[in-house]
Amino acid sequence: MSKVNFENLLEAGVHFGHLKRKWNPAMAPYIFEEKKGIHIIDLNKTIAHLDQACAAMKQIAKSGKKVLFVATKKQAKEIVSQKVAEINMPFVTERWSGGMLTNFQTTRKSIRKMSAIDKMKTDGTWETLNKRERLFKTRQREKLEKNFGSIVDMTRQPAAIFLVDILKEHIALNEAKRLNIPTFAMVDTNSNPKLVDFPIPANDDATKSITIILDAICGAIKEGLEDRKNTKVADKDAPATEEVAAEQVEATEEKQD
């Protein structure tokens, strides 16, 4: 269950959709009313769908798998990079490189190039390069860092992908669907929620709206990670507990004899 309520969402402006003329008819079930030419999102539907998304995200995190967050629009970049970094999940806030998922091996090669350049600076190879070569490598490293630095720990395709705006991130959405990767997304009144496995009807333009939804999603992932950690600790302690129990049984049997 997400920890947001109707009032929280209302204050964040999650209910504000787009102009009526820009709407997608598929969003009709999630629209409460039209006010001054603007569609108003039904926040009760938002809460219900956010709860479903959070429950699913928690299970994914508990299983130890990665969720890739994608938000390249200006008002979402900083929010996503900050909050997602806190839960150690991969994210893309710069330009989405076509084939990042469908041609994942090439993506991994780009990431390995970064590691190779870093290694050159520690094994002495860097000192053997001339000034022009160093400049080229430095610029190459900066470009790779900008595009792939935030997914450097993503050694395999993600178990799910979260998108802030499916119109803006349509390439990422299509790649995920092609690979049958579960999709989660904030869908505004101008979007088609049927394209997403876990649509969350919400204003995907306002920073406050994006923040409150991301807080809930990241909070659910954090809970899943904590549950996973606690389960590992419990499993680690289990053999010792069983051993003690066995010794107690033996001691009881000896007394009876």
Descriptive account of the structure:
With 257 residues, the chain is an alpha/beta fold. The chain folds into 2 domains: 1-96 and 157-233, Rossmann fold; 102-155, Helix hairpin bin (Helix Hairpins, Orthogonal Bundle). The chain is built from 7 helices and 8 strands, in the order αβββαβαβααβαββα. It has helices spanning 6-11, 43-62, 74-86, 104-122, 131-148, 170-178, 207-256; strands spanning 16-19, 31-35, 38-41, 67-70, 91-92, 160-163, 183-187, 198-201. A 5-stranded parallel sheet has the order 5-4-6-7-8, sandwiched between helices. Strand 6 (160-163), helix 6 (170-178) and strand 7 form a beta-alpha-beta unit. Helix 3 (74-86) packs parallel to helix 7 and helix 4 packs across helix 5. The longest helix is centred in the C-terminal third of the chain and has 50 residues, at 207-256. The radius of gyration is 24 Å and the shape is globular. The termini are far apart.
